[in-house]
Amino acid sequence: xxxxxxxxxxxxxxxxxxxxxxxxxxxxxxxxxxxxxxxxxxxxxxxxxxxxxxxxxxxxxxxxxxxxxxxxxxxxxxxxxxxxxxxxxxxxxxxxxxxxxxxxxxxxxxxxxxxxxxxxxxxxxxxxxxxxxxxxxxxxxxxxxxxxxxxxxxxxxxxxxxxxxxxxxxxxxxxxxxxxxxxxxxxxxxxxxxxxxxxxxxxxxxxxxxxxxxxxxxxxxxxxxxxxxxxxxxxxxxxxxxxxxxxxxxxxxxxxxxxxxxxxxxxxxxxxxxxxxxxxxxxxxxxxxxxxxxxxxxxxxxxxxxxxxxxxxxxxxxxxxxxxxxxxxxxxxxxxxxxxxxxxxxxxxxxxxxxxxxxxxxxxxxxxxxxxxxx
Amino acid sequence: xxxxxxxxxxxxxxxxxxxxxxxxxxxxxxxxxxxxxxxxxxxxxxxxxxxxxxxxxxxxxxxxxxxxxxxxxxxxxxxxxxxxxxxxxxxxxxxxxxxxxxxxxxxxxxxxxxxxxxxxxxxxxxxxxxxxxxxxxxx
Lengths: 375, 139
Prior knowledge:
heterodimer; A: alpha+beta; Methane Monooxygenase Hydroxylase, Chain G, domain 1; Heat Shock Protein 90; 3 domains; five-stranded mixed β-sheet; two-stranded antiparallel ribbon; 8 helices; 64% helix; 13% strand; elongated; B: mainly alpha; two-stranded antiparallel sheet; 5 helices; 4% strand
């Protein structure tokens, strides 16, 4: 029994031509993909893959077609010479395509890294956004509280003076009885006003917050995660000199985070591009402290006390940040020291008590119930 | 040892035992291609790309290429065992015939390999077209 050879020949020639055509169409498609989205690493891979397959389709297809041309035109000997060359090219094109395909493994590593970076960025963005909201809320709330306390303080004096004058007039024998009745009403109103002011102050000061045992180094590392972009943007070098062991202290974490974040952001803003910011933490017997040093423009000595005043700013906008920082540090029983000179940068050091007993007075009774250890 | 290799050479066995020059490298090339396609499919699967139609088509293309490599790898061995006397009037396009037996049947099937290759290239093209469509839809 015999089978005709022409279906094989036909399929070989036609198949080679169709393979070449499809490879060219695929290569053109991949080129269009990369044209539309140049940053997509997968399209770049497809471009290389289709290129290698086009080389393969050509080397193989042309070889097969040439074979038939030479054999069927009676020049079989020419093909015998060309055959090894065609075969070698064919093998090379296999290896090329296979090598390009294996690059996909590398692509996977890149893809995984990009995915991890994306997730990290998303987490950082969430953290940053929540921190910013927290910062805005706290700053506005505290600025309002400070203003309200100021108003209350100013109201109390006139109320006390009015009360004292009324009391004196009430005691005077020269005051007519009818006037005394009116004066009594004024006195009661003045007393009510004084009580309102006292109650208001009490409400503001009795706001409860919970102190927990925190690691200062950990808080700083968290802050640096959200500020690293700012360092990078300005080309700043970060010298981190955190103590080797964790530095525990009692704190309201989100407030401390806001205070230190503000100091670091100020250092970044004040620095010149390419400068350095040094952040260090230490502890001694009684205190833990964090210092933030920049090589920026610095301040005049007479300006240093003013920077902690509400609405004072060297940046030409409403300056509430450092006033709030000072308030937060003081609420933690700590203090803030600044050393600065024009052109030489600034050094901000925030000190906090390392032991619970040292700032017990600052903490509301209900908050103390949750604490069992002392630093 | 290096001195022995340099100054006392034995037969290197760098011979080409068949009618095709570079038969073994060619077959090794097929194996390499085959493994690369398998790795490509597994990588695409591990990366979760197969949820997308475009990548699914490309995985099918890689699958057909893998199959094509197995087919031609075995086919080359079959080709070697086919004796020239099974062909009649081989150099005539429409007149050529092949005598049918177990080996020549396998040879005949092997020579239809372009069906697999065209399928692979068609799926590659469809995959890329699908990606282009997806990109246009997103815009």
